[in-house]
Specification:
CATH class of the largest domain: Mainly Beta
Radius of gyration: 23 Å
Strand content: 35-45%
Number of strands: 34
Number of domains: 3
Number of helices: 4
CATH superfamily of the largest domain: Cupredoxins -  blue copper proteins
CATH topology of the largest domain: Immunoglobulin-like
Length: 607
């Protein structure tokens, strides 16, 4: 079986074009010669460390006061380094400590994951994020690849062969937020400590309107070319909006409501984070180098390795988020019990949905109920069966990344009522509706080519022969190619010509998945503006195969991130309600950092 690199190399000379049936070939993850001091995940204890609950009262962000200009609550949030315990141990069984970065305030020491926002619908707030990393540098085992397009504070003044340590650029994005552009936390809005150096879209004070319905958002770093590293260092947290509809349903509340942020990591034997940065298949690649994906061998939930939650024999509400770099999770309960899904990324489904398997890709969320009644004395493991890369990559290791966490039904049932789930989940909101008829349809290309150094590069672009200078793959700094009008509704068709599923995230909007359909087409080479090698999908050559597939029931709610499967066109519909610059990108962090990210602009383009 050819690797992706050798396959691309073999086809790059086909100047006349490549006729796809898609998917093409199963790709392999790039291997790195692992240093001898990496932690062995199979030697670690599992289901021992208690699971932290990010909705605990002492883990909720508290406002610092009132913003004098707007008279809104002001959250003054700091990013600082800290030492964190994941529950991992060394060879002697002694606890290991890990240096991470976290979000905190003047009165709440920085934590990983960051403290939780919990706000009511319609309650606007001001948020100031301060980069307090000071002289903190990137760890030697989490190095910066300066050969990419990235938030370079030195503006190219540091030769690429000199290890970069700092200053560290940061910017926080509210993922899933219906938020004005300058408060969105876009990749070019970064700042170094004390705002000494800033990106072109830097804004020192954000406004979160919280005008959308109750949902589980999250916040995480989004600095261009560094998102994968900054999130890996710990910069992520939960964000909840509550509303009257949710309150009316009388769903389980803390301590019976538990957010689950699932992330995979790799560690040195000393317990420090390790991010692979050598490509054993490409000896000519820079050192350090960006790799196409990152798959860790230790599963963390809320910052704890393979944790355990002791539960009562009753219903619990779990707010699941995949915060990993590249890994998809196909989850089941080891005793065969169902998940009952009640919500997706951006709100509640119409009715409860029993599932034997719950699948979440990076960036996706799921709101689920597990009923532990009649399970007294059982220990139930959440298992994972997703291949990496997804869906056709290497099988998961059942003894490490094939396990996520466990529940032990060992607590006595309290007097708090354990109510049945209502048959309809949106009594005050009405059913999830489709946006109005679309003004236009756009064709978006998902493609894997090579960068100017011969490394795999993931890209997006357009399928539009009427714009020959833009048609085909585009890189982040190319001109805007999507320009909806304020209030317009559009259908975006994502044509995935790669061997991977890509979880595409659209800022600003909540979209609905219309359908998916297999296709074939002809690819011809294109050299991009940055010298990378991409391609064009000939619009006239596209042939749709079979009938469109409607989304699975679990995907029929409000979404901001969705899987785009190999060899398929995925159609989504969205309304664009705010003017300004926003983004769409793959939420595999290693992909968005290496050009699979494009800006779009709503409303008249600035000159």
């Amino acid at each position: 079986m050819l690797t992706r690199r050798s396959f691309i190399g073999a086809t790059a000379g086909l100047g006349a074009g490549l006729v796809l049936p898609i998917p093409l070939l199963i790709k392999q993850a790039f291997a790195q010669s692992a240093p001898p001091d990496l932690l062995d995940p199979l030697a670690q204890p599992k289901f021992v460390t208690p699971l932290p609950n990010p909705l605990a009262p002492d883990h909720i962000f508290r406002p610092a006061g009132i913003d004098p200009s707007s008279h809104l609550p002001l959250y003054d949030i700091r990013v600082e380094p800290l030492v964190h315990q994941t529950g991992l141990v060394d060879q002697r069984g002694s606890p290991l400590q890990t240096t991470v970065w976290g979000y905190g305030t003047a009165t709440q020491p920085a934590a990983y994951p960051g403290y939780t926002f919990e706000l009511n619908r319609g309650q606007s707030v001001k948020v100031r994020y301060a980069n307090r990393l000071g002289n903190t540098s990137y760890p030697a085992d989490v190095p910066v690849d300066q050969t990419m397009h990235w938030a370079d504070p030195l503006n190219g003044g540091n030769p690429a062969n000199v290890p970069y340590t700092g200053p560290v650029p940061l910017v926080t994005h509210q993922h899933g937020g219906d938020t004005a552009a300058l408060s969105d936390g876009l990749p070019d809005a970064w700042a170094t400590p004390d705002n000494a150096i800033t990106g072109r879209l830097f804004n020192p004070l954000y406004t979160y309107d919280n005008r959308q319905e109750a949902a589980h958002l999250w916040y995480h770093d989004h600095a261009v070319g560094l998102t994968r590293l900054n999130v890996y260092m710990g910069l992520a947290g939960h964000y909840f909006i509550r509303d009257a509809n949710e309150e009316l349903l009388r769903l389980p509340k803390y301590p019976y409501e538990v957010p689950l942020m699932i992330q995979d990591r790799q560690f040195t034997a000393r317990g420090e984070l390790f991010y692979p940065s050598l490509d054993s298949e490409n000896p000519e690649a820079p050192n350090p180098t960006h790799l196409p994906e990152m798959f860790g061998d230790v599963i963390l939930v809320n910052g704890a390795a393979w944790p355990l939650l002791a539960v009562e024999p009753r219903k619990y509400r779990f707010r699941v988020i995949n915060g990993s770099d590249s890994r998809v999770y196909d989850m089941r309960l080891s005793n065969g019990a169902p998940f009952i899904q009640i919500g997706s990324d951006l709100g509640l489904l119409n009715t409860p949905l029993p599932l034997t398997m719950l699948s979440v890709a990076p960036g996706e969320r799921a709101d689920i109920i597990i009923d532990f009644a009649r399970m007294n004395g059982q220990t139930i493991v959440i298992t994972n069966s997703a291949n990496a890369p997804y869906p056709n990559g290497d099988p998961v290791d059942p003894d490490s990344t094939g396990q996520i966490m466990a529940f032990r039904v060992s607590l006595a049932k309290s007097a708090v009522p354990d109510r049945p789930l209502p048959p309809f989940l949106r009594p005050l909101l009405g059913p999830v509706a489709m946006p109005a008829a679309a003004q236009r349809t756009r064709k978006i290309l998902l493609f894997e080519g090579t960068d100017s150094r011969g490394r795999l590069q993931t890209m997006a672009g357009i399928v539009d022969p009427t714009r020959p200078t833009l048609d085909g793959t585009l890189v982040f700094n190319d001109p805007i190619s999507e320009n909806p009008g304020v209030g317009d509704t559009e259908i975006w068709e994502f044509y995935n010509t790669t061997a991977d599923a890509h979880p595409i995230h659209m800022h600003l909007v909540d979209f609905r998945i219309l359908n998916r359909q297999k296709f074939t087409g002809t690819i011809t080479p294109k050299t991009n503006s940055d010298g990378s090698e991409g391609g064009r999908l000939d619009a006239d050559s596209i042939r749709l195969l079979g009938r469109p597939r409607i989304p699975q029931a679990a995907e029929r709610g409000k979404k901001d991130t969705a899987k785009m499967f190999p060899g398929e066109v995925t159609r989504v519909i969205a309304r664009f309600a705010r003017r300004g610059e926003f983004l769409y990108h793959c939420h595999i962090l290693s992909h968005e950092d290496h050009e699979m990210m494009r800006p779009y602009y709503v409303g008249p383009l600035p000159s």
